[in-house]
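FORM 12-B: Structure-to-Sequence Request
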């Protein structure tokens, strides 16, 4: 089943026409609201350089799972 997503609010304008694979491989600053400074802090603290690194990071995954379990937004 085909799935579509509106990425306009999720990624910076330069990445809105990219494939999901390209976005996952893109610098974490490709995400809307993540500045180059934020990206540097993520690299320094967790060695996160790409969107995929962020999504696969065990600390962020655990925190996301805990929030999801509470039903909180």
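FORM 12-B RESPONSE
SEQUENCE OUT:
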């Amino acid at each position: 089943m085909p799935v579509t997503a509106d990425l306009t609010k999720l990624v910076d304008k330069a990445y809105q026409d990219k494939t999901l694979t390209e976005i996952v491989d893109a610098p974490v600053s490709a995400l809307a609201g993540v500045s180059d400074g934020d990206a540097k802090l993520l690299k320094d603290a967790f060695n996160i350089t790409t969107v995929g690194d962020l999504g696969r990071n065990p600390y962020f995954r655990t925190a996301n799972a805990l929030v999801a379990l509470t039903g909180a937004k």
